[in-house]
Amino acid sequence: MKRVRERRRKGFLGGFRNVDLEGKMNTAKMFFLGLVLITTALGVVLLPGPSQAATLTFNLNTEFSGGVAPDGSPPWLTATFTDVGVPAGTVRLTLQGILKDPDEKVKEWMFNLDPGLNPANLVFSAPVSKTGSFTNPTISTGINAFMANGDGQFDIQFLFDITDGAVKNFGDSESIIYDITCSSCAGFGVSSFNFLSFMVGGQGVFKSAAHVLSTGPTDADSGWIGPSADGVTVPQPSTLLLLGVGLVGLGFLGRRKKLL
Q1: Judgement on whether residues 13 and 140 belong to the same structural domain of the protein
Q2: 145 and 202: one domain?
Q3: I need a labelling partner for 226 at 20 to 30 A (CA). Which of 58, 89, 150, 202 fits?
Q4: Which pLDDT belongs to residue 237?
Q5: The dihedral of CA 152, 157, 161, 167: what is its sign?
Q6: Each residue's pLDDT tens digit, 93-138
Q7: pLDDT category, 48, cuts 50, 70, 90?
């Protein structure tokens, strides 16, 4: 009888040990489920998608040619490239004027393209939208075909109307948006425009440049402006988030082994 009681007691205590082990396993499962839910939510918020596409922004905040800078504090112009994805491989470009003097106007605005791609393959849509009554610019492309005074050569040029009459000129609080596609361009996206001009000038190289007219106290001067290094906002690669999730997952596996 004594042996039977001991076996029953051991079995009873063993049951407690099993319950304790199962509790730890359930805790581990709940922790893992919570981690999955959190990282999934982060992925929805942080990974580029239709509601939060990758963007590349140039804030033109530096006069580099030795001319006269536009009036007021920079930036004076802003260009934003956005991966819209519809149709596939489409980049949307928004040109925004922030000139403070209503007499100042943009003559030309230039950009670069990935040297591995041919700018002749770029296709620009009709303006998607437009704010202001200025004349639409003429768009031209060519490998290192457009020169900025004191800087370098660019691949894309927007040439604006500079005839007398502010109504035709691109300046303060005006904007225009284009969709850009590129035939036979592998990997085409916003990063395709994140390149420096080809060096031929003595004032450095920039990722964008624009010529602003009618600067200075008598509106008789002009200046070439571009984005400094801190004037460029580049898209965040989603792979960094995936790497972070992987590291968290590895850390959890180590913790789960300890729990079990």
Answers
A1: no
A2: yes
A3: 89
A4: 52
A5: negative
A6: 999 999 999 999 999 999 999 999 999 999 999 999 999 999 999 9
A7: very low
> By the 8 A CB rule, do 225 and 63 touch?
yes
Task: Write down the pTM of the prediction.
Answer: 0.72
Q: Which two tokens stand for residue 244?
A: 């972070």
Nearest CA among 96, 83, 86 for reference residue 131:
96
Cβ atoms of residues 25 and 18 within 8 Å: no
List the CATH number of the domain containing 184: 2.60.40
Helix (H, G, I), strand (E, B) or coil at 82: strand
H/E stretch holding 110: strand 105-111
Vertex 117: Cα angle to 116 and 123 (nearest 5)? 170
Nearest to 141 by CA among 127, 129, 128, 153: 153
Distance, CA of 43 to CA of 210 (rounded, Å): 37
Least confident residue range of 120-124, 165-169, 253-257: 253-257
Residues counted in the chain: 260
- In this structure, what token pair is assigned to residue 85? 């994805």
- Are 19 and 138 in the same domain? no
Q: How many CA atoms lie within 13 A of 70 on its CB side?
A: 29
Q: Determine the structural domain holding residue 165 and report its residue range.
A: 55-235
Question: Do 28 and 106 belong together in one domain?
Answer: no
Q: Give, for 199, the enclosing helix (H) or strand (E).
A: strand 198-199
Closest by CA to 208, choosing from 100, 89, 73, 78, is: 78
Residue with tokens 């960094």: 240
Which 8-state DSSP code applies to residue 52?
B
CA 92 to chain centre: 11
What total number of domains does the chain contain? 2
